[in-house]
């Protein structure tokens, strides 16, 4: 029992613990022993005034141990638990929670509907897909290519969704997130793309659409598209024509096309983009969560090309562009200014 | 556009995660998917410490997110999203493990084990092997609950309050268990080292 009391740890309410032992307890400790000494680890992981003073005092009292302390601290900081990369099984969850379409009916029809539903229910159970829409989504950071029933090509950026009617009676799709369209076989029926905010009538071939945080932008690559909001129409007819809908206003500008389409090669071409807008992209398309110590950084404008394929390259590029320390913990990026 | 939450470490947290939880409350399936993408790895790796059966862990993750969806309107995550999901997941997983064991199962006979690594640039070769073994032996002498606390405290950086909440124990008990666990760890380490030296 005796040795379990030495050293004795005391906790005072919710504060960190205080030890009754002195620096002399550690006079004979080797580097390895320090690495498994609880109070040493607590200091490395959660330094505060008390434990920092304690270990500084130790180094002063036993200067021959200072190097061991520094080395043990450096190693302890790298200590990690071996991890595995799990499979993504979102589909299984989605199957369980899939929202059923809501139908609004008055009371009489409700009664009738319940009766009919009871009969239909049995039949429904055996149907594998009761949904009339096809919905295809991409994960964070995934660039997904797909071909629509009319053989038009769509490239989805990360965390984006495209939805269209299963029987494809109209050439019409709904977009949430970002996509590049290459529309084939134009005919009088046209091809329509909807975002939450605007509608696009496609008259020509290829264009980019991005719909995030209440703002939709359309950039024409080739051909012609007609962009419509509640009360206005804009025709985009020259490559680089851009329509932006934001805060209930639809405006037209001219931009370099490649700045808006390079994401398909998992590259970001930034041209005087604010750090705030860039961080939003990292959040919306890649699922990163950015934390930063200095919010004034957000207004800074940056330019350049960033390769998003290699995470380490991205972190290094961020550090250089922002002139800050950048570390990654899981999906969180922590930016601390020097 | 950004939330202005300022944490203890004075970092500004961007809206990302908060907006996902807001989206979830409004019934947005994509928000749930994004949360899943974000937390799958954390939960999976934590779950694997209890069992080697990956299907069990995957099932528990699935149950966690299905119930998150089911109770989305009544959930309060004021103690943090991390905390909420870890606690909910732990309950789901232990329930599944108990069902599987088909016996009366208490927290006392749970397993919890993990492997610790170091940066090989700082410590290499024989010394690496020796240190790994020492840490492994030292951890092996602790109870599963003690190892779980060490995992949360040192490797996931949780507070004692959070650990207590996740593991369904009183805060004081965590302090006690941790101090005892830490004291025991140190004690075991020094005994092992003394034996080696002699």
What topology does this entry show?
The complex is a heterodimer of chains A (338) and B (198).
Chain A: E1 9-11, E2 17-19, H1 31-35, H2 38-45, H3 49-61, H4 66-78, E3 80-81, H5 90-97, H6 107-125, E4 133-137, E5 144-147, E6 153-156, E7 161-165, E8 172-182, E9 191-194, E10 199-202, E11 206-212, E12 215-220, E13 225-228, E14 233-236, E15 241-246, E16 249-254, H7 257-261, E17 267-274, H8 275-286, E18 289-292, E19 301-307, H9 311-322, E20 324-329, E21 332-337
Chain B: E1 12-13, H1 16-25, H2 29-47, H3 54-70, H4 81-101, E2 116-117, H5 125-140, H6 144-155, H7 160-166, H8 171-197
Helix pairs in contact in B: 1-2, 2-3, 3-4, 5-8, 6-8, 7-8
Description of the structure:
With 338 residues, chain A is α+β, with helices and mostly antiparallel strands. Helix content of chain A is 28%, strand content 32%. Chain A folds into 3 domains: 2-78, no CATH class; 135-260, Sandwich (Jelly Rolls); 266-337, 3-Layer(bab) Sandwich (Phage tail protein beta-alpha-beta fold). Chain A has 9 helices and 21 strands. In chain A, strands 4, 5, 6, 7, 8, 9, 10, 11, 12, 13, 14, 15 and 16 form a 13-stranded mixed sheet that branches. Mean pLDDT of chain A is 79; it is low at 1-20. The radius of gyration of chain B is 19 Å and the shape is globular. Chain B has helices spanning 16-25, 29-47, 54-70, 81-101, 125-140, 144-155, 160-166, 171-197, and strands spanning 12-13, 116-117. In chain B, helix 2 runs antiparallel to helix 3 (54-70), helix 5 packs across helix 8 (171-197) and helix 6 packs across helix 8 (171-197). Chain B has 2 domains: 16-108, Rna Polymerase Sigma Factor, Chain: A; 112-197, Arc Repressor Mutant, subunit A (Orthogonal Bundle), CATH 1.10.10.10. Chain B is mostly helical and 198 residues long. Helices cover 65% and strands 2% of the residues of chain B.
């Amino acid at each position: 029992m005796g040795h379990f009391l030495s050293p004795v740890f005391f906790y005072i309410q919710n504060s960190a613990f205080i030890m009754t032992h002195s620096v002399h307890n550690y006079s004979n400790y080797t580097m390895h022993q320090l690495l498994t000494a609880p109070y040493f680890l607590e200091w490395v992981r959660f330094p505060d005034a008390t434990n920092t003073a304690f270990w500084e005092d130790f180094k002063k009292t036993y200067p021959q141990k200072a190097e061991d302390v520094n080395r043990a601290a450096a190693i302890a900081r790298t200590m990690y638990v071996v991890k595995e990369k799990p499979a993504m099984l979102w589909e299984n969850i989605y199957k369980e929670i899939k929202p059923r379409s809501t139908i609004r009916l008055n009371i009489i029809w409700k009664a009738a509907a319940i009766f009919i539903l009871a009969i239909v229910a049995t039949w429904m159970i055996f149907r594998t897909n009761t949904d009339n829409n096809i919905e295809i989504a991409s994960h964070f950071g995934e660039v997904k290519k797909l071909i629509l029933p009319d053989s038009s090509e769509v490239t989805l950026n990360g965390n984006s969704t495209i939805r269209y009617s299963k029987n494809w009676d109209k050439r019409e799709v709904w977009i949430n997130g970002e996509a590049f369209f290459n529309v084939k076989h134009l005919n009088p029926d046209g091809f329509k793309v909807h975002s939450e905010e605007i509608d696009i009538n496609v008259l020509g071939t290829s264009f980019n659409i991005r719909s995030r945080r209440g703002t939709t932008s359309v950039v024409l690559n080739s051909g012609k598209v007609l962009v419509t909001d509640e009360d206005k129409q804009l025709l985009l007819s020259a490559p680089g024509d851009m329509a932006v809908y934001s805060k209930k206003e639809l405006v037209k500008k001219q931009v370099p096309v490649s700045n808006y389409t390079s994401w398909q090669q998992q590259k970001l071409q930034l041209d005087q983009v604010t750090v705030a807008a860039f961080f939003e992209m990292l959040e919306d398309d890649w699922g990163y969560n950015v934390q930063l110590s200095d919010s004034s950084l957000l207004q800074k404008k940056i330019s350049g090309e960033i390769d998003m394929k290699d995470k380490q390259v991205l972190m290094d590029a961020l550090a250089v562009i922002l002139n800050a320390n950048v570390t990654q913990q899981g999906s969180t990026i922590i930016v601390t200014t020097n | 556009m950004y939330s202005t939450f300022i944490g203890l470490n004075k970092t500004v947290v961007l809206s990302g995660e908060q907006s996902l939880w807001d989206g979830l409350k409004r019934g947005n399936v994509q928000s749930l998917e994004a949360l899943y993408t974000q937390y799958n790895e954390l939960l999976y790796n934590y779950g694997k410490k209890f069992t080697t059966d990956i299907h069990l862990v995957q099932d528990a993750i699935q149950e966690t997110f299905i119930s998150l969806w089911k109770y989305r309107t009544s959930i309060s995550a004021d103690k943090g999203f991390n905390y909420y999901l870890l606690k909910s997941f732990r309950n789901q997983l232990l329930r599944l493990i108990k069902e599987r064991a088909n016996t009366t199962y208490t927290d006392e006979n749970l397993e919890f084990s993990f492997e610790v690594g170091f940066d090989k640039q700082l410590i290499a070769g024989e010394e690496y092997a020796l240190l790994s073994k020492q840490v492994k032996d030292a951890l092996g002498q602790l109870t599963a609950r003690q190892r779980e606390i060490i995992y949360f405290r040192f490797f996931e950086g949780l507070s004692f309050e959070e650990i207590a909440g996740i593991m369904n124990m009183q805060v004081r008990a965590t302090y006690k268990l941790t101090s005892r666990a830490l004291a025991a760890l140190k004690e075991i380490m020094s005994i092992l080292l003394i034996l080696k030296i002699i």
